[in-house]
Design goal:
Integrase_H2C2, alpha+beta, Integrase zinc-binding domain-containing protein, 5 helices, Endonuclease III, domain 1, single chain
């Protein structure tokens, strides 16, 4: 949808879509395309800092979680640290739930 139009679709156009699509629809204004890749712009509350997070497809989630864990010297650092490190660069629907599942 973001590729096809700069305008946010109406709720009526989204209402029958998946819960994930609805959550991305809610983030519409913070999503942007760069070189055909979609990112989320996250800003802190005062707007003084922002981070660009790659919107990750489901097919890459396990790979990224594995690499994030590997980048912590091969040790399992636990939920909070893996969650923080993952959020530094990536975003996807239900990220926290996936990290929690991964850390079990």
């Amino acid at each position: 949808m973001k590729l096809n139009s700069a305008d946010r679709p109406s709720w009526q156009e989204i209402a029958r879509e998946s819960p994930a699509t609805k959550r991305y629809w809610a983030l519409w204004n913070s999503l942007y395309l760069k070189d055909g890749v979609i990112y989320r712009k996250w800003e802190n509350n005062d707007g003084g800092f922002y981070r660009r997070q790659l919107i990750l497809p489901k097919s890459r989630i396990q790979e990224i979680l594995r690499k994030t864990q590997d980048n912590t010297s091969g040790r399992h650092f636990g939920l909070i640290k893996i969650l923080r490190k993952t959020r530094e660069r990536f975003y996807w629907d239900r990220l926290r739930a996936d990290v929690e599942k991964w850390c079990r």
